Amino acid sequence: MDVLVIAAHPDDAEIGLGGTIALWADQGLSVGIVDITDGEPTPHGTRERRLAEAERAAYLLGVQERILLDFPNRYLMDTIELRQALAEVVRLHRPRLLFAPLGLDQHPDHVAAAAVARHARFYAKLTKTDMAGEPHYPPALLQFATSHLRKVFQPAAVVDISDVCERKVKAVLAYSTQFSGREERVRETLLSTARFYGVRIGSTYGEPVFSPEELAIWNPVTLVPQ
Ligand SMILES: [Zn+2]
Fold it and tell me: With 46 labelled, which of 73, 148, 172, 219 sits at a CA distance of 20 to 30 A?
């Protein structure tokens, strides 16, 4: 697996990183999403419907594999048990890039998911353990935002998602249990947010990327505007 995206709830990865995921998939990279919880209960959702929506969203973006860890929603904590469960996914799938939630958030599950993702990356490289798989330390860790805090955070970079922004919107709206009846509002919010970041890089739509470490430029050609 090239990229593994870690999320607290089904729909987090789509909202924060859907455009970038679609671009990777279009380039032939294998992308997986691991949802730590099923996201339920919510006012209009059921587990079965939410999981079906998650499958549909993954399909729309070109995600190869979607894994549900099935820890309880709303009770997410950075525990040893969860670190190990997540580390096992990392060891078994051996991604080169790990994408985790940005920890600056009002939602406690998102804060916990950010911490546990960082710690799982470290746990994944441990030897002499009974965790499944072989030791693996993903060389890069980046973060995406689905923050409930009403604040603009400074990204490390912005991805040009102009060509796939409509697909991102579709993938998010696949979660009809979450967004039914307010599709236009959600669409407008997603597009205006993407437009805000797109303007920062002189494109139409953009998606912010955050980096807890120095952001590596693996291919300097990508620094030259197309
Ligand atoms: Zn969430």
Answer: 148
